[in-house]
Structures are given as C-alpha cells and as structure tokens.
Design brief:
heterodimer; A: alpha/beta; Rossmann fold; Ubiquitin-like (UB roll); de novo design (two linked rop proteins); 4-stranded parallel β-sheet; B: alpha+beta; Glutaredoxin; 4-stranded mixed β-sheet; 8% strand; globular; binds flavin mononucleotide; binds iron/sulfur cluster; binds FE2/S2 (inorganic) cluster
Chain lengths: 428, 226
C-alpha cells in the first residue's frame, strides 16, 4: 500500500503494511505470516533457496538491477572462511526515499530477508549499514533486532535449525559514496568510505577481506515473500526481463508524491497522471528523471511512451536506477536544477580519481558561471567534452553520474542554456 | 505544517493515518533510548543527538563505557569500531575536537592522524561546536523543486545566523544538507536526530518557537531532578 497515499493500481507485497503500526512489532509481523518464509528456507538446502531466487528473476533494487540469485550463486561454496552478508541501507541517491519507509514500517520483513540471504550464502554475520541520518529508522530497526534475538530468530540455533546467524545494525556517518558497495565495505571497516578497485569482487574478497554479498534493503525485503510463495508467483507481475513489483518513489511537482508499489513495466505517464494525481496545480509537464539524480533526464516526449521496467526505461533513453521518479513542471529552471545536482556530486566525490575530483568541481563551476550570466558560447561544448572524459575512466560510477543530467539536459533543453548565454544570465 | 496531510517529524502524525509517535515506535519505546546501547549483537549503538551537550564531559564513563565496550564486541577488528565510537563521542560532547580524536585513537590503538583522516571524511561528525539544535535543510533536487531554498533562507532569517554559524543565544546552527531520503515530503529538514517533513517557509517561525520551548522545559525538568 502506497505511503502516504495509496492507489488501486498498486500490488502491495513489500509495502503491504506501510502505515500500519500493528505490523511493526514482532507479534504483529508474526500474525501476518512473518518468518514463515524463513522457516521454509531453513527446511531447504541453501542451494535450493538460491534456485528459487534465481528463478524469480528478482533484480537488485539498489540501482544496478543485477540479478540477485545470480549474485548469491557467486559466493564460494566450501571456502572454509567466514562469509558476510551486507545490507545496503545507506539510501542517499537524490530522489530516493523507499528504504527508510521499508525499515521504519516493516523492520522484521528486512530482518527476515537478511537471515534468509545469510543462510543461502553461508554467512554467519549480517551487517545492516544504515544511513547515519536515519536515527529513527536505526532505533526502530535496533528494537526489532533485539526482539528477534529474544525470540530465538537470531543468534544460535535459529528456530531449532542448528544454523547460527548474527545481525548487527551499523550506523553510517554521512557520506553518499558509502552507498557504493566497496565504499560501504571500507566504511564498515572503520576507514574512509573510498570505493575499491575491482577485481577482486566482493564474492572473492569483500569486507574484512572475506567473501561478501551486498544487497539493497528493498531487494532483501522481497526475499521472504518470494521464498514463501515461490518464483512463479512472483513472476505473475512485471515483464520477462523485469519480474515482480517495485517501489516507485515519486517526488517533485505532482499532486500526491510518495511511494507506490507497482508491477514493473507500468507506464510512466499513467504513474504521473493517474496514480499521483497529475502535475501539481494543473500545470504542464516539462521533464522527468525516472531513476534518481544519476540517470538521464527524459523530455516530455520521451515520457509519453516510457514503460517502467529496466529495459523499458533504457529504450526510452534513460535508466530505471532505484525508480526514483522526479517530476518537473513547465516552470522548472532546468539549468538551476542541473547545477544543484552537479554541486551534489562535487560535494560527494571521494577525491581518489582525478577525472571525478576535478571534473565534478569544474562542471559545477562552469554551470554556476552560466547561471550568473558569465557563460561563454563554448561552455556547452566544454561541458559535454568534460563529462565525456569523466565517463568510464574512474574507480566507481559516481563520476559517470554527472554526465547523465548534464548531457541529457543540454540535449533536450539546449534552448534554456542558450537563453542564459544570450541574455547574460537573465534570471535570479 | 497545519494541514492533516503533513508530517511534523518522526513517522508520526503522517498523512491520513494520524499516527502518534507511540503508535509508530511501540509504547515502551517512546521518548526513551536505551542508554546502555541495547542488545550486544543488535545495534552498534542507538545513535542519538541531544540538544544539550557538554564539550568538557569525560569521554566514556558509566553507561557510555558499557556502550563503548559493547561496540567493540560487534566487529572482528578493533578499527571497525571507529565510526560508532566517534558517534558516541559526539553524542556526549556535541562535536569531535582534535583532542577527542586523540582520545578515540588511543582507545582503539590507531594513530591520531588516521582518526583525523576518517573523521573529516564524514559529514555527520561536527568538527567544531554547533548550536543546541543543528538544523540541516535539504536543498537537493526534489526539495529544491518545491521551494527548499526559501525554507533555508527562512531558517537563516529567523535564527539571525549565517550559514554554519551559531546563533547568539547558542541555540541554533543552520546548514545546507544533501538529500535526506525524505524527498516525497519536501522540504525535509533534520534537526538533531529528528526529521521534520513538508516544511514550508511560513512554518519556520513556529517550528523554532516550539524548539525553544522544548529547551526551557528540559532545563526545568533537570532542575526538578536535582
Ligand atoms: C555512487 C553510488 C552510490 C550508491 N548508493 C547506493 C545506496 O545508497 N543504496 C543502495 O542500495 N545501493 C547503492 N548503490 C549501488 C550499490 O553499489 C550496489 O550495487 C547495491 O547495493 C547492490 O544491491 P542490489 O544488488 O540489491 O541492488 C550505489 C552505487 C554507487 C556507484
Ligand atoms: S569516481 Fe569519484 S567517487 Fe568514485 S572512487 Fe573515483 S573519486 Fe571516488
Ligand atoms: S531531495 Fe530533499 S530529501 Fe531528498
């Protein structure tokens, strides 16, 4: 059920209990079939659990959309070493606000998903790396973990199965880059959250140098349902390449912003006009960012035919990312918003790679100058060239993320940049 | 924040559900934080930011020492306890001074320079003192589209401060924040450990008055307990 608004088009699986404090407690979660998925998983072999997740086609909800079952199958089988499962709850991609809701409304859903995941990959220790700013979510989650320990759902001999799984909630300390999986691992080890060069991949040498799998909160929250109901059940929604349901975080200029759980493949236009009640104050649409600030901006024309699946958004010219739909009305100052996004990346660059450290600052400076009316005709080409050089040349993709809003906005809204150049910065 | 659709902080009183904080967090949990840090395996610490802090306080004593020791049990390596330890130090002292970094370094058998390098990487560690209320206004894209820059201006005006400065009465510091993951409820403002959502510029005055009233109530309570 959507939060704070709901809509009949929704299919409520992971968001079923949003807005229902009754399901937050252990008792409440148990009454709603909670931990049945875990019991079922424990009665199977880890390989069988991975098989179900593989067949469900579930793809990672942290942005990259990598198939979850496949990722789990990369973990070594009899390595003799401790394994780790990390849950990425560092949610900080601008426009994204789903993981916080999942944690604060249904902490036990996440814990259940974590335990199943840990069982499947042979990990005895789970860390949930929860964004430091989420004091409330941290406390709700901490309380739920305590209750789970007390009920024998965590710790030694879970449900009498002989399996031991420990879970620790680890609060971050404010840095977007710690959402990147290897940055998160460094941060968890008590280091600066700087991403690592891959390979080695986490399944070979992750946190503390040991085999590690990392999954997003929403990915793990879907696991109990998939294990309990089966992969065919999950595949009744969505498309062949993007099965299941997904939380769509809609923000910006719509009447009813919020989270909505919809089958993947849902039309973007319908999401905005029907589910979210249309553009605020009956204005016209200008542009939409469909997947968080790191993906290309879609023009009004591209929005018309865009279907919200991984492949659908790609066809339309952008990426689904974390399905964070940012809606902009006709009065939006595109250059100003792109400048704000660029300054975000400049602030969050960890500084290890020269193209990223220097490039994010340069791009921001050029855009700010243009906004202030001191732009030069050649600046647009410089921006495109700069962002080209920042793509595919660095340790992580934060650097590439700057190219998305800059290049797509120049492509679709060149006129707005041109106006600034012609008028010497005619606004604000 | 007058309309019933709006959320004045925490997950409570949100939207159509009219929930209270008690509904959200469970009766036994409201307004309390387990000072001892909860179950040894459960949570690194329950981080918490207080409006009243004491920069001179001893670092880890009593329940805080217990919490520090629990943190150490949760990681295979001592260094991994660094972030939660710094958070705990900041909870006590309000900011992480170079002296605090040194103390933490020796507790965790790390060099001071290393701890400094890590501390400065993360935005949540205050490298200098802040007001009793640290107000962080998100001006990133979703909030920005809905007027966040006006909200930021209103906070600066009403507190009479410049960005990052402490107000004369010592009560407020206002800073700009990156996305707080409350984008559907613009503008999202974090004040110490609480989120305030759907804040509009005209709400700011009243919000600040509530905070000041809370401060004086706290000091009355403290006097009563003595
Ligand atoms: C700069 C950057 C920031 C990221 N931030 C997050 C984040 O906040 N939360 C998240 O789950 N994934 C984030 N990711 C993606 C993770 O690296 C990783 O792909 C994901 O957590 C894997 O989980 P999944 O397979 O379940 O999606 C980020 C990636 C990059 C490059
Ligand atoms: S691309 Fe940027 S954020 Fe990523 S590792 Fe390099 S400098 Fe750091
Ligand atoms: S953009 Fe303000 S909370 Fe995300």
């Amino acid at each position: 059920m959507g939060y704070p608004y709901s809509h009949p088009s929704e299919v409520s699986i992971i968001s079923k209990h949003f807005g229902d404090p009754g399901a937050r407690t252990l008792d409440g979660w148990m009454k709603n079939g909670g931990y049945d998925g875990l019991k079922k998983a424990l009665s199977m072999s880890p390989g069988e659990v991975i098989e179900i997740v593989k067949n469900s086609g579930l793809r990672g909800r942290g942005g990259a959309g990598f198939p979850t079952g496949l990722k789990w199958s990369f973990m070594p089988k009899d390595s003799g070493k401790p394994h780790y499962l990390l849950c990425n709850a560092d949610e900080s991609e601008p426009g994204t606000f789903k993981d916080r809701e999942l944690i604060r409304w249904t902490p036990h859903q996440l814990i259940e998903g974590c335990i199943i995941g840990a069982y499947a990959i042979g990990a005895e220790q789970v860390y949930i790396y929860c964004r430091g700013e989420f004091f409330e979510a941290n406390q709700v989650l901490g309380k739920a973990v305590e209750d789970a320990y007390e009920a024998g759902i965590l710790g030694e001999n879970i449900f009498g199965s002989g399996s031991t799984i420990e879970l620790t909630v680890h609060a971050g300390a404010g840095a977007y880059i710690c959402g990147e999986e290897t940055g998160l691992m460094n941060s968890l080890e008590g280091k600066r959250g700087e991403p690592r060069i891959k390979p080695p991949f986490p399944a070979a040498a992750g946190v503390f140098g040991l085999p590690t799998t990392i999954n997003n909160v929403e990915t793990l929250s879907a696991i109990p349902h998939i294990v309990r109901e089966g992969s065919d059940w999950y595949r009744q929604w969505g498309t062949e390449k993007s099965p299941g349901t997904k939380l769509f975080c809609v923000s910006g200029h719509v009447e009813r912003p919020g989270n909505y759980e919809l089958p993947l493949g849902f039309p973007l236009r319908e999401l905005i006009e029907d589910v979210c009640g249309g553009i605020k104050d009956k204005k016209n649409l200008k542009a939409v960012i469909p997947g968080g600030s790191s993906v290309p901006i879609l023009s009004k024309e591209q929005v018309e035919s865009c279907l919200l699946s991984y492949e659908g958004v790609q066809e339309a010219g952008s990426m689904l990312g974390c399905a964070s739909v940012i809606v902009m009305d006709e009065n939006t100052d595109i250059v100003h918003q792109v400048t704000r996004m660029a300054s975000f990346y400049a602030h969050e660059s960890c500084g290890q790679c020269t193209p990223c450290r220097e490039g994010t600052a340069w791009v921001t400076n050029i855009l700010k100058k243009m906004e202030a009316g001191q732009g030069k005709e050649e600046d647009l080409e410089t921006l495109i060239e700069l962002t080209d050089q920042m793509t595919g040349t660095t340790i992580c993709v934060l650097s590439d993320s700057v190219a998305a809003p800059v290049q797509s906005s120049i492509e679709h809204f060149r006129g707005e940049y041109q106006k600034l150049l012609n008028n010497g910065g005619g606004h604000g | 924040m007058s309309s019933s659709k709006k959320n004045p902080g925490w997950a409570g009183n949100t939207g159509e559900y009219e929930l209270t904080e008690a509904d959200i967090r469970g009766e036994a949990f409201v307004g309390k934080r387990p000072l001892e840090g909860g179950h040894p395996s459960a949570s690194a610490t329950y981080p918490y930011m207080l409006a009243t802090k004491d920069p001179e306080a001893p670092l880890f004593e009593g329940p805080y020492l217990e919490r520090f020791e629990k943190i150490l049990t949760r990681y295979p390596k001592k260094r991994a306890a660094l972030l939660p330890t710094l958070s705990l130090a900041q909870e006590i002292r309000g900011y992480v001074s170079p002296e605090t970094m040194d103390e933490v370094a020796s507790l965790l058998e790390l060099s001071s320079a290393y701890v400094r390098g890590v501390t400065t990487f993360y935005t949540m560690y205050n490298k200098q003192p802040v007001g009793k209320y640290l107000i962080q206004v998100c001006t990133n894209i979703s909030c920005n589209l809905c007027g966040a820059e006006d909200v930021l201006k209103a906070f600066l005006k009403e507190t009479g401060t410049a960005l990052g400065e402490i107000s004369l009465d010592g009560n407020f510091s206002v800073i700009e924040a990156e996305c707080l993951a409350g984008c559907g409820f613009p503008t999202c403002v974090q004040i110490n450990s609480k989120y305030f959502e759907n804040v509009e510029s005209q709400d700011v005055g009243e919000l600040l008055r509530t905070l000041v009233a809370e401060l004086s109530m706290d000091s009355v309570k403290e006097k009563g307990e003595e």
